[in-house]
Specification:
- By secondary structure, the protein is an alpha+beta fold.
- It has 16 helices and twelve strands.
- The strands form four sheets. The chain has a five-stranded mixed beta sheet, with helices on both faces. It has a three-stranded antiparallel beta sheet with strand order 4-12-9. Strands 6-7 form a two-stranded antiparallel ribbon.
- It binds protoporphyrin IX containing FE.
- The site of protoporphyrin IX containing FE has 23 residues, from helix 11 and helix 16.
């Protein structure tokens, strides 16, 4: 589904977005920066070490510079002021849908690929699917699923943490997001979903049989059909899953959501939640294996919780775990940069940015900047203690969940899911990596341990 004329009618902003050319502008020579090699731009340097490359560019050209990579020219916004300017977007200069153009075919109609009035109209009702009462019900389900899932993980022998967490989170998503039964049904949905996300970060979005993109389109079609077939039945269901919550929202004529919108939003939410949480739990486990004192501190806090499960209310009262979670997301933000496209020419800090410029808000650069953090490359959860409060310098110095109109809708869900997982894992098991192991995280396309994190789990009780 693309935006229809009724979505854009009489809205000059939406009309101007619809009129932008598909390819972003190349006319950026007047800005400081470096396009790198012909054709490939800076792609190889970025693939070799994105963080070091960004650091070099910023040192040479400042915090607003032009670059070129993966066949696009881009302007990077690399400090908290620039991030605030772009994400708060008071002057309405930036389109999210044209920034996230790679989602256009596979996740049409999702909330991230909507802008301005059209985005606000859909975001308001979607927020209801994340309000406290519903969150508490999702939390109950997550406790049961995670506890049962962990029972099946191997003990006393090495396994790849990343593969296991990915598959556990897919099972969680099939039931908590879609309300599917575990078993054959969830396996088919998981396969379709894995195919779908496999087709997003690739260059050729043309449907040729046998390609990744073709598999992704088939995955997307399977999921859409599955959702469409169930909308009517879910409208009268009292089940507590995200898809059913959205079906109820669509019943209210005030929300103006069609069946097609419900399907688009459900798929986008699945996508927005999955890789990000897989990345966060994998990097968090990696830092806790590297710094076992933090694993111990989180375990102690979890053991002090009364009861056999962690409720949505209890999640808010885990200060040590919260510091480790925040620090992990500072060091390894699951969304490395946020893309936007300028919908008109504007000037920022003396730089003239043309219309149709691809902008990258450099989250990782901001999170690793000495301007806001002492020893930014050090993993130090205590920087979040109230007496140090390093996070209080600038409202946009820690933005793993973005900011402004498109700020992550699921950040409380992610926070709850991560903490429920750690509750069941660390109360019952010790998790260790081989002695002398080197810990390393690949940053792109999303931060993940380079070796999928081989670990051994030992039962504690
Ligand atoms: C640690 C895990 C997560 C991280 C780091 C994360 C990060 C982000 C970021 C940076 C954005 C803003 C994108 C932009 O402005 O272009 C975003 C948007 C979004 N996220 Fe998350 N996310 C996480 C988990 C989740 C979960 C679990 C859900 C749903 C259950 C979710 C749903 C969404 C949605 C629907 C949006 C789009 C909001 C809009 O366009 O209005 N996210 N997320």
């Amino acid at each position: 589904m693309t935006m229809t004329s009724s979505d854009t009618a009489n809205d000059p902003l939406l009309e101007s977005i619809a009129e932008l050319s598909t390819r972003p502008t190349k006319k950026l020579d007047h800005l400081p920066g470096d396009y790198g090699m012909p054709v490939f731009g800076n792609s190889f340097a970025i693939l070799k070490n994105a963080r070091a490359f960004n650091h070099r560019m910023q040192a040479k050209f400042g915090t607003v510079y032009r670059s070129s990579a993966f066949f696009s020219r881009v302007v990077v916004f690399a400090d908290a002021d620039a991030a605030q300017y772009a994400l708060m977007d008071k002057e309405q200069n930036f389109s999210s849908s044209k920034g996230w153009f790679m989602l256009k075919h596979l996740l049409p109609g999702g909330i991230l690929v909507r802008d301005f009035a059209n985005h606000r109209k859909h975001r308001r009702p979607l927020q209801l699917a994340f309000k406290s009462q519903v969150m508490a019900a999702y939390g109950d389900r997550l406790n049961r699923l995670i506890q049962e899932g962990l029972e099946e993980w191997p003990t006393d022998k090495e396994f790849l943490f990343q593969d296991h967490i990915k598959s556990l989170l897919l099972d969680n998503a099939a039931t908590v997001f879609l309300g599917a039964e575990l078993g054959e049904e969830s396996k088919k949905l998981n396969r379709a979903f894995v195919d779908l996300i496999g087709g997003i970060v690739i260059f050729m979005h043309r449907r040729i049989p046998g390609t990744k993109f073709d598999r992704a389109m088939r995955g997307s079609e399977y999921l859409k059909d599955w959702l469409h077939e169930r909308i009517d039945e879910r409208r009268s269901s009292s089940a507590t899953d995200i898809f059913t919550s959205l079906c109820h929202l669509a019943d209210d004529p005030e929300n103006g959501m069609s069946a097609q919108d419900v399907v688009g939003h459900t798929l986008l939410i699945l996508f927005a939640a999955h890789d990000t949480t897989t990345s966060t739990l994998s990097t968090m486990m990696s830092v806790m294996a590297e710094h076992p004192q933090w694993q111990e501190a989180v375990r102690e806090e979890m053991l002090a919780v009364e009861g056999d499960s962690l409720s949505f209310q209890q999640v808010a009262d885990l200060p040590v775990t919260d510091r480790v979670f925040r620090e992990t997301l500072r060091c390894f933000p699951a969304v490395f940069m946020i893309p936007r496209r300028s919908i008109r020419a504007f000037e920022y800090q003396g730089h003239k940015i043309p219309a149709n410029t691809l902008i990258h808000v450099g989250i990782d650069q901001i999170h690793r900047s000495e301007k806001y953090w002492t020893n930014p490359n050090q993993f130090d959860p205590d920087r979040w203690l109230p007496e140090r409060a390093e996070n209080k310098g600038h409202p946009f110095q820690w933005i793993p969940f973005g900011g402004g109109a498109h700020k992550c809708l699921g950040f409380k869900f992610a926070d709850m899911q991560v903490k429920i997982f750690l509750f069941h894992l660390l109360r019952n098991y010790k998790i260790e990596a081989k002695k002398g192991k080197k810990f390393s995280i690949d940053l792109l396309p999303i931060p993940l341990p380079s070796d999928k994190l081989p670990v051994t789990m030992t039962r504690l009780r």
